[in-house]
């Protein structure tokens, strides 16, 4: 499985955004409402990579527009950035989920390694077109999509390090918590959020 045949060569971001809706590189397209491509300026110096679209993103067709997106926007502001300063996207472009009770949001399922690898040509195309100074990996799935499956956020979170292998080799990266982790946190929610803001400040200064 791979999205490579569906990714037009030498296309600009607008062309890629249209082409992603034709992708059949993995089975996730069958149940998702639509593919969700990245959004933001083509001149962005920071590219933020999340895991996959969520329930709201799948419906609206834009990245980070649900509850986690609101957390991200707030954290970016506290870090001295705005959504207009960054390009946001996901490692996987279709929503993987479990069915939920009628009227409730569908339940997120973590994409598997096969799906992440299959979708990688889209992320490679985005990053190549934008050529940012820094890739910010939001969460473990995003970090592993850049660094490979052996990467551990617990060891390298908040540090600016180059990707060592694969199509992103040599690019500067910073791994941090996904904003959804703030929503899932209970007693330590303030601490988790503060860590996200601190890491985004490092990215902004870089």
Automatic annotation (TrEMBL):
Gene3D superfamilies (UniProt xref): Uracil-DNA glycosylase-like domain
Q: Which residues form the Uracil-DNA glycosylase-like domain?
A: 37-201
Q: For this UniProt entry, which segments traverse the membrane?
A: none
Keyword presence, Transmembrane: no
Name the UniProt key words of this record, in alphabetical order. Answer: 4Fe-4S, DNA damage, DNA repair, Hydrolase, Iron, Iron-sulfur, Metal-binding
Q: Would the keyword RNA-binding be found if you checked this record's keyword annotation?
A: no
Q: Which family does it belong to?
A: Belongs to the uracil-DNA glycosylase (UDG) superfamily. Type 4 (UDGa) family.
* UniProt-listed PANTHER family: TYPE-4 URACIL-DNA GLYCOSYLASE, TYPE-5 URACIL-DNA GLYCOSYLASE
Would you tell me the protein name for this molecule?
A: Type-4 uracil-DNA glycosylase
- Species whose genome carries this gene: Actinokineospora soli
